[in-house]
Amino acid sequence: MKPKIIVILGATATGKSSLGLELAGAFKGEIINADSMQVYCFMDIGTAKCGIKERAQIRHHLIDIVNPDEQYTAGRFRSDAAAAAADINSRGRIPFVVGGTGLYIRALTEGLFQGPAGNPVIREELLAEARLYGREHLHRELAEVDPVSAEVIHPNNLRRVIRALEVYRIAKRPISALQKEHAMEDPPYNVLKIGLVKERAQLYADIDRRVEEMIQEGLVQETESLLKAGYDENNAAMGGLGYKESLAFIRGGETWAETIRLIKRNTRHYARRQITWFKKERSIKWFHPEEKADIIALVEGFLNDLK
After folding, report:
1. Domain boundaries, the chain
2. CATH code linked to domain 120-181
């Protein structure tokens, strides 16, 4: 039998972490983080990490494993998460993969298409275009040749935009089409995917409330500490939600009120992109966060099924 894993996914502020803690506690599980920002040390408030108390109650994996100046890829996540899942299974416990980074979840459960080898000449041409015309220009170019990838890759994620365009120029085909063709024929796990969804108005209100809480907890002060430690705009992690806007405020580029407005707006935009990504996956069982009894019954049935 294939080892079983349970994935809890959804947009930001839908309650994934609290549900993961509850289910892992009820079913002798451990949590594998699938949030691309929570892998970074020293970035706690802006990434909404579980507290030390919660992590002491339920063992967590892949949180605080790299510094903000290190690159952490979906390929590395797949390797690290697979090792964590094997370790959890070997001790007779259940891996709960919890997070909203769809690419990471797909990499673990379906495999990851690496694509053709990079071409330094093409990459430099694309970087030159970005410097000359801006990131939005490259993203518009991607939308023309690979609208599927453009829909899920943010214009600010220059590395991924360039990689998608690089693959298109090399292979003459969209990377999204190649990824679909190279999906695993025989996935390594028996997977249950539980998605959390809220009404849009409620989700946006919860996002705004979370941003206010992060500000009160010291998001800007955390960003200042990162700057003092030598991490700045040149580190990809510092482009994350909340940190990028806080940096602009610290540098004097935005007012306090505008900084808060931008964090809220950009987080709502990110949530929409997450929803768009997950809507394409048919295997997800969707629930409102308050439907816990139904979720628990589903997990119980999944774990008791001998297939």
Report:
1. 4-113+183-304, 120-181
2. 1.10.20.140
CA distance 203 to 14: 7
Whether this prediction's pTM lies above 0.70 is answered by yes
113-170 tens-digit pLDDT: 667 888 899 999 999 999 999 989 999 999 999 998 998 888 888 888 999 999 999 9
Report the CATH number of the 4-113+183-304 domain. Answer: 3.40.50.300
Q: Which residues lie across from 284 on neighbouring strands?
A: 193
Distance, in Å, from the CA atom of 247 to the CA atom of 272, rounded to the nearest integer, reads 24
> Which tens digit of pLDDT belongs to each residue from 40-98?
999 999 999 999 999 999 999 999 999 999 989 888 999 999 999 999 999 999 999 99
